[in-house]
Give the backbone structure.
Amino acid sequence: MLSKFYRKLYSRNGRLCVRVYSTNDKKSIGDRFSWLMSKEGSGTVVEGLKNAYFNKLLPLEKYYLFHRFHSPQLNNADFESLPLVLLIGQYSTGKTSMIKYLLGTEYPDIRIGPEPTTDRFIVISSGNERNSIPGHALVMDSEKPFTPLSKFGSSFLNRFQMSTCPAPALKGLSLVDTPGILSGEKQRQDRGYDFAGVVEWFAERGDRILLLFDAHKLDISDEFRSCIELLRGHEDKIRIVLNKADLVEQQELMRVYGALMWSLGKVFHTPEVARVYIGSFWDKPLRYEMLSRLFYAEEQDLFNDLYSLHRNSTLRKLNDLIKRARLAKAHAQLLSEIHRRMPMFLGREAKKTEILESLPEIYTFIEEEYHIPIGDFPDVERFRSQLYALDWSELPRTQLSLLDNVEDMMKNDITGLIQKIPQEIVTKTEHREEEEESKETK
C-alpha cells in the first residue's frame, strides 16, 4: 500500500535521487543508527587534555580544596571514556523501552512494565558477552570513570550496576538507565541514598541528558522538578523527548505538545526551551499512522544528535575542561579573598559570621578586581553552607604560581588543542561518508 511508504528527495553527485522509507519496518532508522555507531572510529586526541589537567589544573584544585566543594578529581578514565547518555523521567515514561529500541536488543537485568520496574542506576556498555557488574566491584575498577560514586555509600552501590552486551550502537556511546522518578505519596519515601546527588554527578559527567515525558501524563512531580533544577548549568546537554506520542490522535497531540511546553517553561525559567523530539521510541507498530512521517523524521533527528556525540567527543571533553577551569579559578580567588579578610587571632568567629553574610559583596569585588564573569562563580547559598561546615583554619593562602599556571593553560594549551579539533572532526566525517557510500553501493 502507498500509505506504508514515504519518499525523500536528496542530491548526490549532481543527480536528483529518491529514497523510499517503509513505515512498516519501524527498526530501519534504529538499525541505521546502530550501524553508524559501530563504524565510527574511537580514537580521539585526549593526551593534550590529560597533560593540561594533571600538570596545571589539578595542583590548583588540590591546594584550594576544590574537590571538597565541587566535583571529585578526574582520572584517566574520565578523559578516555565513551560519551555518556543519561535518561531521566518519571516511572513508565518508556526509558528502558527506548534503550532497547536504540540498541535493537535487550541487555542483562532489563525490566519493562507499567509500574516502577527499574529500581537502580544501570550503565549499559559494550561488551563481548552479556554480563552484569555489581556496583561495589564497578567503583573499584580504576579503568572506568565511576570510582567517585563510592562516596554515596553501600545503599546506593547495592542499586548500581553495569550491564554489557554486544550491541553495535554501544561501540560509540554508553547509556544510563535510571530509576523512575516518583510522584504523589511515593515521592516522600526515602530511597536510602542521595538520589539527587547521584543524578547531579551523572549530569555533570554525561554528554547528553534525555528528559522523557509520557504523552498521557505530563504532570511534573516535586521530585522530578527538583531533579530538573539540579541540571541548571547543563542546559546545552538537555533534550526533551515526548514519548508514546502515537497513542494519541493528531488534534490531541497538538494540545499535549502545547501543555508540555507551558509546563517546561515554568520549570526551566528561561525564555526558550530545549529541543523537543516527538515520537514513540519502542519496537511496537504505530497505533495511528497519520503522523508516521513526523515520527520518523523526529527519530532520525534524535539519532543524528546522539551520533554526533561520538564524532564531537573531543570537543565536548575540551568544553567541560574549560568550564571546570573557570569554576576552579573563581573558587580559588574566593578562598584567597576570604583568607585575606580573616584576622590572625582575635575575633575570628565574629569575622567568620560577617564574611558569610557578605558573600554577595565578595563575589562582586572579585568580579570587578580580577575580571571574572559572575557566571563562573558557584551558587552563593550552596557555597555559604559549604563554608559554614569547613574548618577555617584550613583556608589556603594565595598561591599566584598556581593561578598563573591555569591562566597559561587557558591561553596556550587550550588554544592549541582547539586548533587541532577541526581536523579530527573532518577526518571522522570523511571516514563516515566513505563507509556510508560503500554500504549503499553494496
About this structure: The mean pLDDT is 83. The two ends are 27 Å apart (CA to CA). The chain has 16 helices and ten strands. Strands lie at 5-12, 15-22, 84-89, 121-126, 131-134, 160-165, 174-177, 208-214, 238-243, 276-278.
